[in-house]
Amino acid sequence: MMTTQHAGRTCATCFFTDTFPGVTIEDNGRCNYCNRGHIRTKIRELTTSNLEQLQLVATQLKLETQQKGAKYDCIVGASGGLDSSYVIYVARRIMGLNPLVVSYANDFTTSIARENLQRLCKVLGVDLRTISSKGKFDRKHIAS
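and the corresponding C-alpha cells:
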C-alpha cells in the first residue's frame, strides 16, 4: 500500500527523489548532488572504465530483442534502494535499454523504498512488476 504522506519531488536531471536520505530538491528543480556536479562526476567515473564493453552488451541485447519481437531488453531486480535504482538508471538512460523492473514485495522493504522505485520507473518510462509470495511465505521462513 502506497502512503501519501510525502509524495516527494524528483530531480529534473537525475533519478534522485527528496525521499532518498541526504537528498534535497533545490529551487531550480535539481537535487543538491546535481547542482554541485558530484553525481555526474561520480557517474562518469563509475561508468567509463567498462563503458565500451557494456555498450557492446547493450547493443547485442537490443538486437536480440528486435529479432525476437520482444518488448523488454533485460530484467532488472530492484528494491527501491540506491544501488538498484542506479542499475535501472544506467540500463535506461546510459545504455538505452528497455528493462522490465521486477520487485519482490515483502515486509522488509520500507514504504519509502517502494515509493522511490515506483516514482523512478515512472520518470524513466519503464514497466515495474511487483511480485510477492502467497501466505507471507518469506516472513514465515525468515522469522523461524
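(Above: one complete record from the training split.) The first helix runs from residue 32 to 36.
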